[in-house]
Amino acid sequence: MQLDLNLLAALDALLEEGSVAGAAARLHVTAPAMSRSLGRIRRTTGDQILVRTGRTMTPTPYAIAVRAQVHELLHQVQGVLAPSRELDLATLERTFTLRWHDSLVALCGPALLSAVREQSPGVRLRFVAESSIATPELRRGEVDLEANANRPGAPDIRAEKVGETRLVVVVRQGHPLTRVGTVTAAQYAAGEHITVSRRGSLGNALDDALDQLGLTRRVVATAPTEAAALEFARGSDLLICVPEATTRSAVADLGLVVLPLPLELPSAPVYLSWHQRYDTDHAHAWLRALARTALATAGASA
């Protein structure tokens, strides 16, 4: 059955006003047009809806029984078809799932959660770990917002560069390189290294840059997160290269030293990504704005 939603509005007006003329005035249509709508409603429902009793119209038992349901259905339909309605943060109740790089969760997550709770206490955030393989959760709507260094290539995924941070070398206090005035590329390559890779990859763009200089390095281990890799570097002479923004709290807490990276490499970008279905979602847009601010406050933006 193909239904005209205009009939729902007409039925609601007829039941509220109790007359064709009153319903027509309410919906700003002519009385003949409303009479035709009443005729269609009668044919669709198989009920008279309103019957004449003297000089007035009286709703049928069926009409009385469905009056509240019709009004509620119309309200729901109007809500679905009105995406531009204003957002009421005080009453918003929603759970957002965020798949962010682990370092960004540590740096920016607390600031984001604090802002969310202050403005909309009914909103909850689910930070989930990144996967070691490409996953379609963003496209399927299972993840609301991603934040990492990767720019998605799918046409239905929006990606916005919200910041960048340069790469630095991190070593333990007392590491031999801390006693060198200026670390050279050759000295950097001669050390033993640990890399960060969710997929366990032993090589990355650093190796390509070293190769152009005729240098190679020895990677002895990989770790799935920067926090884990920093712990390895803390207790050994291993070198780790990470975005500078991720080291700001770790250096003081773990007793590590930051050294300039002696290679010409572009800064590491930070992208926010979401599916295009959320472009006009006011609550999602509100969360994206708070995420940008949190990233900037944490020092991840340029």
From TrEMBL:
PANTHER family: HTH-TYPE TRANSCRIPTIONAL REGULATOR LEUO-RELATED (PTHR30118), TRANSCRIPTIONAL REGULATORY PROTEIN (PTHR30118:SF15). InterPro entries: LysR-type_TF, LysR_HTH_N, LysR_subst-bd, WH-like_DNA-bd_sf, WH_DNA-bd_sf. It comes from the Bacteria. Belongs to the LysR transcriptional regulatory family. It holds the Pfam family LysR_substrate. It comes from Streptomyces tateyamensis. This is LysR family transcriptional regulator. Residues 3-60 form the HTH lysR-type domain.
